[in-house]
Predict the structure.
Amino acid sequence: MASARTRSLDALFYVLLVVTAVVFVGEILFIFLKAPIEARMGIVQKIFYFHVPSWYGMYIGAAACFVGSLGYLVRPTDLRDAFARAGAETAVAFGAIGLITGPLWGAKAWGTFWTWDPRLTTALLSFLIYLAYLVLRAFAGDGAGERRFAAALGVLGAANLPIIHYSVQKWGGQHPMVITGSGGGLGHPDMKIALAGGFICFTLLAPLLLWARTRLELARSRLLRAEGDAVDLGLDTRTEA
Amino acid sequence: MITQQQTPNDRATDFQAVQGNPTEQYSGGTLLVAAYAVLWVVIFAWIGLVWRKQRALDGRLTDLERVLDKAAAAADKGKG
C-alpha cells in the first residue's frame, strides 16, 4: 500500500500537471490572439516565444544530468543515476524542439534553414553530447562501470553549456541577441508577457517530465535488483513462451 | 581572437529588379504552424516512449510475480 508521503507526492504531481496544462493553453492563446505581430519578420517571429524557453528547458535537463551525474560519482545511488538519465532525456527532448524550431524561424529571418553559426554549432554539439549519453545508456548495459562512465559524460557534457550561452557574444555570427547581452529587447509589453509565459510553461513542464522519468527509471532499477535477487535464489524470471 | 573591422565598402551591394511574379520563399504562417506542431509532436512522442517503457516494466513485473507465485506454491507443497 502506498505510504502517506507517496500519496502526497502523487497529489502534488497531478496538481503540477493540471497547472502546467492550463498555463500552456493560456500561453498559446495569448501568443496567437494577443501578442502583436513583429514589424520586420511578421508572424513567424512568434516561434520565439517557445524557441527560447525550449533551450531554457534543455538547460534545466542538462543541469539535472550534471547534478545527478556528479552526485553519482561522489556516492552512487539508484536515485542519482535515474535523475541524471532523466535529465539527459529532458535535455535531448527540449534540445530537439529548439533545434527544429530555430531553423524554421531562420528560414524566414535569414533565408536559410541552417548556418554554421557559433551559437547554432555549439547548441548542436550539446544536443549530440546528451544524445550520445542516451545511446550509451541504451546499448552499453546497466552495470556499475557503465553507470560511472555515463556519469563522467554527464559531468563533462555540461562544460559546453556556458560556451553556448557566451558564443554569440564572443564570436558573433548571425544568431540574434534579444534579451541577453546588448540585445535590443522586446518592444511591446505583450511581447514581454508572451515570452515570460513561455518561460513559466517550460519551468513547469521540464521538472514535471524530469520527475516522471526519474520515477520510472527508479522503478526499473528496483525491478532489476529484484530480478537479480530472484535469480540468486535459483528462480528463473524469464518469460515462458 | 580575430576581430574583423568592417568598412562601409564591405557592405556595398546592389539591388536588382525581381523577374516574374514575386513570391515569398517561405510562408511565415506555414513555418509557424510547423514549429508549433514540432513542439507537440516531440512532447507526445516522449509521452509515448515513457508509456512503452512503463509497459515493458509491467511485463517484467508480471514475470517476476509469476515466478514468485510458483516458488511459493512449491514451498507450500514441500511443507504439506
About this structure: The first helix of chain B runs from residue 28 to 79. Chain B touches chain A through 29 residues (CB under 8 Å). Chain B has a mean pLDDT of 78.
